[in-house]
Design goal:
The complex is a heterodimer of chains A (411) and B (378). With 411 residues, chain A is α/β, with parallel strands linked by helices. Chain A is 39% helix and 12% strand. Chain A has 11 helices and 12 strands. Chain A is globular and about 70 Å long. In chain B, the strands form 3 sheets. In chain B, strands 12-15-14-13-16-17 form a 6-stranded antiparallel β-barrel. With 378 residues, chain B is an alpha/beta fold. The chains are: A alpha/beta (411), B alpha/beta (378). The A-B interface holds A 317, 319-320, 322-324, 326-327, 340-344, 360, 389-390, 392-394, 396-397, 399-406, 409-411 and B 28, 33, 36, 38, 49, 51, 54-55, 67, 69-73, 75-76, 80, 100, 103-104, 107-109, 111-113, 116-118, 156, 158, 160-161, 287-290, 294, 298-299, 331, 361-363.
Chain lengths: 411, 378
């Protein structure tokens, strides 16, 4: 159980699916390295193979295309560094990485690391006010720079504002210039239809714990004709792309969760988008100042993650609102959990054209497979008062109204 | 009470929070992010707001079973503390950034936010006491352990701010006891080194840090009689009372070391002289505040006996003070020092005490010396 009575942060991580827990526990009670040649090894290997097949099917991919990794971040690193190094080895002039400003840090920071250490050039592709890529602008930029582009990357669905991108159209556009495309589908996989075979993508990152599987396992789908330069070397596991003993128990948990979300994907998307629409209507009624960010997707047209609600609450710090909601047992987020520790204005909102001040005033509520109408009602009930109070607490960048020696106080 | 415990990640604030919890308060821990680009790890006793400090604060809160948050005050800190520090040096004054942080960040920006979010008080690990007078008004006093006492850096707090302060370490006999208590409570920060120096200058090289932010130009070093002695690389990098780093080729005629007596940023001039001339007997302070209800003499302008302290770890000196209104209507705190005082620099905070009580503070604007009239040096 969550320690928050009302858990509205399913995009950070979600409840473990009971079938996944059962599969993990069962496998952990057995011994066997999937690479060993004896019976125990074969038994573990069978679990890995069956799991690979189940996850690949859920992602619309062939089992041989799935590389198990430790999670989304590792998958993004392997895809971007692996594609970059492989392309540069063939053509030293092709050192440009085309990307948008709304990518996850696992993509952004990897690209920036390559810029700093490997002489890569970054080509920024514009997004609109909803965070949707501007395909016409991308086409123009590709036409101009394609000879120097090593790869392009576009996240399938954004983790903060929930925007779903026209990934297949983008990848088709890039394919016309022979540019391989990577997509971070960590948020999209299990929430909206994700079909790797028909996506035109070269590589695609997915993660288990966002869909009810365990933390610590994810996958990178690598199209069969794509060659990556490995980041991690060793025993040559996973098509020599990702050495390291395979975690059969986690793979089994991942597979159980993937199978479950695949079976209920359409119904669950409908259920969550209806809950979301109900919440948007009630919240904008009760807090008229609240601005809903990203595509509205009122009729579940597929332009937004079904469970994602993201608002700007003007003139209040996101962390004040988070605090007040947490105090009444409601778990929310000011953005992605990766910046936990030192709050920063969201780079996603900045890329969408918001200023730094309003980018600090955001709150994300994300629904998942265990979310109910009662959860949403609890939020709707708590939010107006929390907003009023958070607004009173003001913006941290503003000067305090407490008088001190420096503000003319004398006696 | 609902109490917000400001958690630096150090042992003092962790034990202070623990005592507030034990006293039955409803406590929430908050670590202030004061820099947007924090270092990852601490280097000994230096640095602040590292991820390590934040994690230490977090672990302490987990141990105490209280919620923990990180709140970003980096914009205000950059403006009110860091930029102010640069501006003051640029004007030839010597500021105390820790006092400014208490005045503007911990007990203003943070306190205001805390009050608005429903808290009654901000709790810190400072060694100082808040007592109540017969009418229930707050008074700021030195901690039980005078060696560890931090009432000086809190001297800038006003009545309004003191109303909402909580210092649970007030009665602690010594720092050793706080460390022992932290160990007994299972707090991992029990043996963490104390912080020294200025948190936003992690390598401790204040002069080098300032040189990157203030345009320094070579200028003249003259002695107390106006004789040119040499050149400096920028007057703003000097502090009154400073002896080292003057780089004067030849010794003084009396063979004794010379000290910085005055800095004139407008003329880019540094005046040096023998140690005896560092003595001053009158201090004039501006930017005055009173820690609680002011004593009657503040309103009447009558003289009152007090002790004055001009640096965090300096000794208090006997003084007779009074309020004056200057010709332009500005309030000034005039402090006469029968025994004199050495090496005070404009910009320093003078905290005025009666017994253990902090009356208030003022920023030193000018000091006068009967031994030497600086106005004669052209």
């Amino acid at each position: 159980m969550n320690t928050s009575a009302v858990y509205l942060d399913h995009a950070a991580t979600t409840d473990l699916n009971p079938a996944a827990l059962a599969a993990i526990t069962e496998q952990y009670s057995r011994t066997g390295n999937p690479s060993s040649l004896h019976g125990a090894g074969r038994s573990a290997n069978r679990v890995v193979d069956e799991s690979r097949q189940a996850v690949a099917i859920a992602a619309g991919a062939h089992p041989s295309e799935l590389i198990f990794t430790s999670g989304g971040t590792e998958s993004d690193n392997l895809a971007i560094k692996g594609l970059f190094w492989n392309r540069v080895a063939a053509n030293d002039q092709a050192r440009t990485i085309a990307l948008t400003g709304i990518e996850h840090h696992a993509v952004l920071d990897t690209a920036m690391w390559l810029e700093e250490h490997e002489n890569a050039t970054l080509l920024w592709l514009p997004v609109d006010g909803d965070g949707v890529i501007d395909l016409a602008a991308a086409a123009t930029l590709f036409a101009e720079h394609h000879q120097k582009i090593a790869l392009a990357t576009l996240m399938w669905a954004n983790n903060e504002v929930g925007t779903v991108q026209p990934v297949a159209a983008f990848a088709r556009l890039a394919a016309g210039y022979g540019i391989p495309v990577h997509s971070d589908a960590v948020q999209a996989f299990g929430a909206v239809e994700v079909d790797f075979a028909n996506s035109n993508l070269a590589t695609m990152a997915i993660s288990a714990h966002k869909i009810g599987g365990p933390v610590g396992i994810g996958g990178l789908l690598v199209r069969r004709d794509i060659v990556l330069t490995p980041v991690q070397h060793g025993g040559g596991h996973e098509r020599k792309l990702r050495s390291g003993t395979l975690n059969a128990a986690s793979a089994a948990g991942f597979a159980a969760a993937a199978t479950a979300v695949r079976a209920h994907l359409k119904d669950e998307a409908t259920r969550l988008s209806q809950l979301r629409e109900y919440a948007v209507q009630r919240i904008t009624e009760l807090v008229p100042e609240a601005q809903f960010n990203g595509p509205r997707d009122a009729g579940n047209e597929g332009t937004r993650l079904p469970g994602n609600l993201h608002f700007t609450f003007p003139e209040c710090e996101g962390d004040s609102l988070l605090f007040l909601l947490d105090m009444v047992g409601i778990a929310s987020s000011t953005g992605s959990a990766c910046t936990a520790g030192v709050p920063q204005p969201s780079h996603v909102l900045l890329a969408m054209g918001r200023d730094a001040r309003s980018a600090r005033s955001v709150q994300r509520f994300t629904l998942g497979h265990t979310s109910t109408r009662a959860d949403v009602d609890a939020l709707i009930e708590a939010l107006p008062q929390a907003y009023a109070r958070a607004k009173k607490a003001g913006m941290a960048a503003d000067e305090s109204s407490i008088h001190t020696a420096g503000t003319g106080f004398t006696r | 009470m609902k109490v917000l415990a400001a958690m630096s990640g150090g042992v003092d604030s962790a034990v202070a929070a623990a005592r507030a919890v034990e006293a039955g308060h409803d406590v929430v821990g908050v670590h202030l992010a004061l820099s947007r680009m924090p270092g990852t790890l601490r280097t000994g006793s230096r640095g602040c707001c590292t991820v390590e400090d934040s994690n230490d604060a977090w672990r302490a809160c987990d141990k105490l079973g209280i919620p923990f948050y990180v709140w970003d005050f980096s914009d205000r800190f950059a403006e009110d503390v860091v930029q102010d520090f640069v501006d003051e040096y640029e004007a030839g004054r010597t500021p105390n950034p820790c006092m400014r942080c208490n005045e503007k960040i911990k007990f203003a920006a943070l306190l205001e936010k805390a009050l608005a979010l429903g808290f009654d008080a901000v709790c810190t690990g400072h060694y100082a006491k808040v007592l109540r007078d017969e009418n229930g008004a707050p008074e700021l006093h030195r901690a039980a352990d005078w060696a560890k006492d931090q009432s000086y850096v809190l001297g800038v707090l006003t009545h309004e701010q003191l109303e909402h302060c909580m210092f649970p370490l007030a009665e602690t006999p010594s720092k050793a006891e706080v460390r022992a208590e932290a160990a007994a409570r299972g707090l991992t920060v029990a043996n963490k080194p104390d912080s020294y120096d200025i948190c936003f200058i992690p390598d401790g090289d204040t002069r080098g840090w300032l040189a990157e932010r203030i345009e320094m130009k070579p200028g003249e070093i003259v002695d107390h009689e106006g004789n040119a002695l040499g050149e400096h690389e920028g007057a703003q990098a000097f502090t009154v009372g400073q002896r080292k780093g003057l780089r004067l080729g030849r010794p003084a005629s009396d063979g004794k070391p010379r000290f910085v007596l005055e800095i004139r940023p407008k003329e880019n001039k540094v005046i040096v002289g023998p140690e005896a001339l560092l003595a001053v007997d009158q201090l004039r302070g501006i930017r005055i505040s009173w820690a609680g209800v002011p004593i009657a003499e503040i309103f009447t302008g009558e003289k009152f006996d007090c002790m004055v302290q001009v640096r965090a770890h300096g000794d208090p000196v006997e003084a007779v003070a009074h309020m004056e209104r200057s010709a332009d209507g500005r309030d000034e705190l005039v402090v006469n020092l029968p025994e004199g005082m050495r090496g005070v620099a404009p910009g320093q905070t003078m905290v005025v005490y009666q017994g253990s009580r902090v009356l208030g503070q003022a920023t030193l604007d000018s000091a006068r010396s009967s031994a030497w009239d600086s106005e004669k040096v052209k």
